[in-house]
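Recall from the previous lesson that a structure prediction takes nothing but the amino acid sequence as input. Here we apply that procedure to Transport permease protein from Gordonia alkaliphila. The sequence below is the only information supplied.
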Amino acid sequence: MNHLRTTTATFVRVLQQLRADPRTIALLLAIPLVMLVLLYYMFAAMPEVPGQPTHFDRVATAMLGIIPFIAMFLVTSIAMLRERSSGTLERVLATPMSKGSLMGGYTLAFALFAAVQAALTCWLAFGGFGLTIAGSAGGVIGVCILIGVLGVALGLLCSAFAQTEFQAVQFMPAIVFPQLFVCGLFVPRDQMPDWMQYLSDVMPLTYAVQALQEIRDHAAPTGLLWRDIGILAAFTVAALALGAVTLRRRTP
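The prediction returns the following tokens.
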């Protein structure tokens, strides 16, 4: 009961902080929509092959998951660094609150924003731009929320190893960009060199993109989709556990 109470208190505190920071809210909610608009009009000018899915349909489904992953990773890692640099984190952890409660509260708060972000981007993609998939839009939203939470978990984990916000931002090219290159978005994984395929096997974004592609191409959930969802959930739990273990109670 005490764990639930402290987790809820952290959840409410983070939401209050975000509400007082409209720029962060704009980054979380408005920027993904702008990126999707740019993506749509970029492909709108390209010639399409009759009888084949449009360029936008092939790429946008995966991007609906990649956008919240990147946004949540960046915002969460910086938010935790601000807590540490301002001394708030040290004061909070000086109380009986456990590290797990702190991580849980942060995860729930940003998961809420991930859900809103996924709903808005999917509304624009399906309703505004006519994105066509074989599966359900609800399935896409659910997987995108999970991917956003994965970004939160990795952002919290990386923030434990950064001393400044600038260092936190530097984790983005180190953690996110390699996953973008080998996840199968640009080149099918089976056409990559063997060593890149092995690398993609241990990258969580690979399974995020693959799960969304399964929803795009199949009307009913497949075994591969459920396997990928399970792997994403396992990566998320592992990242949160490692983040709690590596979180320092005192600022060096």
